[in-house]
């Protein structure tokens, strides 16, 4: 039987498995191959009754590995706006440098003009970063079908992420007293952060503790937070005199018994569960 072993890292095991094994099962359903996670390595063992199925499954695993190594957390719009913001930042720095040189040669008027241009470039840079943050948050959340009880902060600068987190949680707190929301916050483990920049997870924890939220870090950088409603409104209760809807009773003769098909039990196909070696 054709088989293939693909080496992966410990971090990539979770990406290949997916939540509740959903990603791995999806690959098996699409390709017809069987995938097992081998602890020794670790590695993904792919087997099938046909070499083409093994190749198809391997291609999907390799794509997951590539995405994990070089993840796209910004999306096309966010990436473009970030690039524009960075270019404006470089422009600002050059203008300030030129202004300094002009002052050194005694051209104060020319230096002042360059400083003014540099400040404008800085304002434009900040505006682009704000636009990028909105686009990135949308790309990682709403564009992926996530609702109000989920917030993935990947791709955001720490200040942007924390500001958006506060806004989203404040919105959940507007729900009536007595109604709480389980809010999933993805701060990330910092695997793709630059040295010294792995601060978002810690900042998120500090904020949750400061606010007194009940939370659990279910995996590194992923928090499940219980957000209570604080609105002055209360959950609606039945008014006095309200009655539950009634249903008309049927006579025994009017109740039709469903016809059973003797072949129904045998017509159902049996589902086989995949073997996932951990």
Features of the shown structure:
278 residues, alpha/beta, Ribosomal Protein S8, Chain: A, domain 1, 3 domains, 4-stranded mixed beta sheet, 3-stranded antiparallel beta sheet, 16% strand, flat, Smr_dom
Protein architecture, described:
With 278 residues, the protein is α/β, with parallel strands linked by helices. It folds into 3 domains: 3-69, 2-Layer Sandwich (Ribosomal Protein S8, Chain: A, domain 1); 76-142; 150-229, Ribosomal Protein S8, Chain: A, domain 1, CATH 3.30.1370. Helix content is 47%, strand content 16%. It has 8 helices and 9 strands. It has helices spanning 10-17, 22-31, 51-69, 75-104, 108-140, 158-173, 200-211, 264-267, and strands spanning 3-7, 34-38, 43-47, 150-152, 176-177, 180-186, 214-219, 222-228, 231-234. The strands form 3 sheets. Strands 4-6-8-7 form a 4-stranded mixed β-sheet. Strand 7 (214-219) and strand 8 form a beta hairpin. The chain is flat and about 80 Å long. The protein starts with a strand and ends in an 11-residue tail after the last helix. The model is unreliable at 234-275 (pLDDT under 50).
SSE blueprint:
Blueprint: E1 3-7, H1 10-17, H2 22-31, E2 34-38, E3 43-47, H3 51-69, H4 75-104, H5 108-140, E4 150-152, H6 158-173, E5 176-177, E6 180-186, H7 200-211, E7 214-219, E8 222-228, E9 231-234, H8 264-267
Parallel strand pairs: 4-6, 5-9
Antiparallel strand pairs: 1-3, 2-3, 6-8, 7-8
Helix pairs in contact: 2-3, 4-5
